[in-house]
Design brief:
single chain; mainly alpha; hpI Integrase, Chain A; three-stranded antiparallel sheet; 12 strands
């Protein structure tokens, strides 16, 4: 770790960022410029900076301001821990001018000893499900130590004014690299690359890759080069770049099978080859420019098949969803129908739901992998789920733009979703057909939706468009295992002018009313009426006038139902004739309006398609 030194000039520049409230020695959180939640039972409402070192007092002010202003601390529970830390610091003799005067491990050891002497050191526990789908309880440090750690590393980062790419740990958000906020780790660490010359070159390579490739791709490449560094430490611990020869790489080919599976071997070798060729081209390393890893040496793992969730597992999952709290249950509902990526679900905006002229609902969201806005049709059940969650968020008064925000109004983490659903599987013993505990992965829902579409006979090009695949390769994986279930003939797409019950043309939204989406609405969601569409909003509840569509303002239809309307007009005219003959005035009046509407509808549709 690079040594970070304190300087009075640097500290003054940090304190210069504090406004009037945050400069004070006493913070009354009831008058804080930020929205800080205060419980009526909370007695600790003031934060008093009483450290005997004026310079450390300034550091604590800066660090606490950062935690509150960044939204990491949103209530007053941390105030008591900060007070306890200052009381401990006042007992340190001699107390240095800055927390940067000592390494964090040294401070942690001193603070731990102090807390134990006071009888206040209590370790917490963390519960999670491991990869074997078994509960794992691990210990975590005292909350007092956690507060010290947060403050220390905020200060360490603030005092380290080097460019981010020169550090051994890169904060991707500071580098303005687009990342998914639903991921827990927003940093890249180069600590495990032990060779200084290799670490310097890998930093240059990853810095080159970040503007070109996705963050996940760069992270995978760094992992591959870290594995190569570990191999060099075992084979050439004192080697330099000149040690990278064809002979050494042949030894690496034998080393990899003992460490990783075949698919990871392929990734490691391709990434290493790309690194070496780029480093030679850019003259970052004094190595030959000729290719040193050949195509025939790259293993060919079997093509991965979609990891869809078996029906027997889905049935068990759905029967126990009531055990989850509402947000998690609603997320699973959406995943089961929409098949979006978990990062896209967790970052759904509040205004993601829209509706077209036919009354069909659509989800509109940003596809993280494709980096573009995406729109898919959804059933009324999913629309109701979204609307209910929207009401919950608005009622809570949270300052957020997200449909499923966490307690701080930010993005929930993918890891939290995985833990919730797998804890449910463990608690209710959800098992597959072989009797094994099933371990859920969020991407399995996406594969399940693709598989179900193949079984429904949905065209491949539409599945590619619906799921947002860049090319047909991934879509073809679903077809590869389910081609035998394909229907021989697909329904035709709905097309044509849309009119209401009076025959008036209803304008359509070109962005939403594409042939593919209309096909999906008719054949997969099955929301259409026998003679048209219902545009009544979900929030209005069930239709109060069943069997009265032709007198309803929410009714929509198009030319594909023209024969149905003509047949119904003939039936209506016979009913009117019979009612008139028998003197049934009320029945004749009711059907007369229906006949007029049918005449208007038929005339408008025939005129539009003349």
């Amino acid at each position: 770790m690079t040594t970070i030194t304190w300087s009075r000039e640097r500290q003054q520049s940090l304190l210069g960022q504090l406004s009037e409230f945050w400069k004070e020695d006493v913070w009354d959180m009831r008058t804080s410029p930020l929205q800080t939640r205060l419980s009526e039972k909370t007695k600790q409402r003031r934060l008093r900076f009483g450290c005997k070192s004026a310079t450390i007092n300034g550091e604590l002010k800066y660090a606490c301001w950062k935690k509150f202003s960044d939204g990491d601390w949103r209530n007053t529970q941390e105030l008591g821990r900060v007070h306890r830390m200052m009381k401990w610091l006042n007992s340190v003799d001699p107390l240095p001018a800055s927390l940067m005067s000592r390494a964090f491990d040294e401070w942690r050891g001193l603070y731990t000893t102090y807390l134990k002497q006071c009888g206040m050191y209590r370790q917490g526990t963390t519960f999670r499900m491991d990869r074997e789908q078994q509960p794992c309880v691990s210990s975590r440090d005292s909350q007092y130590i956690s507060t010290l750690r947060q403050i220390y590393f905020i200060l360490r980062s603030a005092y380290d004014d080097r460019p981010e790419h020169e550090k051994d740990v890169w904060d991707l958000q500071r580098m303005a690299v687009p990342i998914s906020l639903s991921l827990s780790n927003a940093t890249l660490s180069f600590h495990r690359i032990r060779q200084p010359w290799l670490r310097k070159t890998v930093k240059a390579y990853i810095r080159y890759c970040l503007p070109i490739y996705a963050e996940g791709t760069c992270r995978t490449r760094l992992q591959s080069l870290t594995c190569f560094s570990e191999f060099l430490m075992s084979e050439q611990p004192r080697g330099t770049a000149k040690a990278i020869t064809r002979k050494l790489l042949i030894e690496y080919l034998s080393y990899l099978p003992t460490r990783v599976c075949i698919s990871v071997r392929k990734s490691h070798l391709l990434n290493l080859r790309n690194f070496l060729e780029t480093a030679a081209r850019e003259r970052w390393l004094p190595i030959a420019s000729e290719r040193m890893i050949f195509d025939e040496e790259i293993p060919r793992p079997p093509k991965p098949q979609p990891r869809y969730i078996p029906a027997v597992v889905l049935d068990q999952l759905n029967s126990h969803l009531g055990s989850l709290k509402a947000p998690w249950m609603q997320m699973i509902f959406i995943l089961q129908e929409c098949g979006m990526r978990i990062s896209e679900l967790l970052q759904l905006p509040l205004d993601c739901l829209t509706q077209d002229a036919r009354g069909t609902f659509y989800l509109r969201y940003m596809q993280g992998k494709m980096k573009r806005e995406h729109t898919i049709p959804v059933s009324q059940e999913i629309a109701r789920v979204v609307q209910e969650q929207l009401q919950v968020v608005r009622a809570a008064g949270r300052s957020t733009t997200l449909l499923f925000p966490n307690s701080k109004g930010g993005v929930r983490k993918q890891q939290s979703f995985a833990q919730r659903i797998n804890r449910l599987a463990y608690d209710h013993q959800i098992r597959d057909a072989n009797g094994n505990l099933f371990r859920f992965q969020s991407h399995q829902f996406r594969h399940t939706v693709g598989t179900r579409m193949i079984n429904l006979g949905v065209p491949h090009h539409f599945i590619q468009r619906y799921l947002g695949h860049l090319g047909p390769e991934m879509t073809n994986r679903y077809a590869h295992i389910h081609d035998t279930t394909m229907r021989e003939k697909l329904s035709e797409y709905l097309q044509g002018t849309l009119v209401d019950v009076t025959g008036k043309v209803v304008p359509e939204e070109g962005l939403l009313d594409t042939g593919d989406l209309r096909w999906f609405t008719r054949n997969v969601l099955a929301q259409a009426l026998p003679n048209g569409y219902c545009a009544i909003p979900v929030v209005a509840g069930p239709c109060p006038h069943p069997n009265a569509c032709l007198n309803c303002a929410h009714f929509r239809t198009d030319a594909s139902f023209l024969d149905v309307h003509k047949a119904e007009l003939c039936d209506t005219e016979r009913v009117i004739e019979k009612a008139t003959t028998n003197g049934w005035t009320r029945q004749a009046e009711m059907n007369e309006q229906k006949r007029n509407n049918l005449v208007n509808i038929i005339s408008s549709l025939e005129q539009a398609h003349a």
